[in-house]
Amino acid sequence: MNYCDWRQDIFDTPPKINPLVWELRDETYCLSPGQTLDFIDQALVDPEIPQLFTKEQIGIGLQLLFSNACGNAVFSYLETPDHQRKVTAIENLKYLYQNYFNPLCQAPLKWIGHDLDDGPIGYLCYMFWDIFVLYPGHQSISVEMTDAALTVMAEALCFKNDQVIVSALHGLGHWVNYASKAQEIIHQWQLQPTTENQAVLIYAHQAWSGCVQ
């Protein structure tokens, strides 16, 4: 299976489908973890995807890749034998924020965790670190993998996009009781926040305290 065939299988979905029950081609499921990560990394920097597919299709496709409830692709981040490949793949999630969340999640933030205006990709943006496979306390996650994930979240806080900022704060809030660096990242951002939205600033304090759901 080549990249273009895989890309079509992931993103060329009918409108309004439920990614939880959507079936991909057998060839997609049979890819090795390493090949899956290679294709995901390529998709994260593929300039053709926003031109070929709708915002809804992109959101659904990204859920198929990154939600632990929507298939096995995301488990490649844990199952690839090469540890450095895992770390690199996690580092490359910065492109998910740069090329997808930031340009496509532009709805005004009104009610954190309940805004649906951006559709499937908006849901993924907010819930990403909840439904991704890097759980705090997971025995298969190394210090290097954790640091890579926290760095992605820290860099996401530099965007002047409330949806992206909240996504990062949400993830960091889950990590504060497991990695002291998470709380420090939030604190440093609070000193020079990239938004004036009071709802986000309040949420940042909640995340710093580990009080996120």
Question: Could you characterize the architecture of this molecule?
Answer:
With 213 residues, the protein is mainly α. It has one domain (3-167). The chain is 61% helix and 0% strand. It contains 13 helices and no strands. The protein has helices at residues 3-11, 26-29, 33-44, 49-52, 55-66, 76-79, 83-91, 94-104, 119-131, 143-156, 162-175, 180-191, 198-208. Helix 5 runs parallel beside helix 9 and helix 11 (162-175) runs parallel beside helix 13. It is globular, with a radius of gyration of 17 Å.
List keywords for this structure.
mainly alpha; globular; 213 residues; single chain
Short note summarizing the structure:
This protein has helices at residues 3-11, 26-29, 33-44, 49-52, 55-66, 76-79, 83-91, 94-104, 119-131, 143-156, 162-175, 180-191, 198-208. With 213 residues, it is mainly alpha-helical.
Q: What is this structure's SSE topology?
A:
Layout: H1 3-11, H2 26-29, H3 33-44, H4 49-52, H5 55-66, H6 76-79, H7 83-91, H8 94-104, H9 119-131, H10 143-156, H11 162-175, H12 180-191, H13 198-208
Helix pairs in contact: 5-9, 7-10, 9-11, 10-11, 11-12, 11-13, 12-13
Number of domains: 1
What order do the SSEs take from the amino end to the carboxyl end, as H and E?
A: HHHHHHHHHHHHH
Question: Which structural class matches the secondary elements?
Answer: mainly alpha
Number of helices: 13
The fraction of residues in strands falls at: under 5%
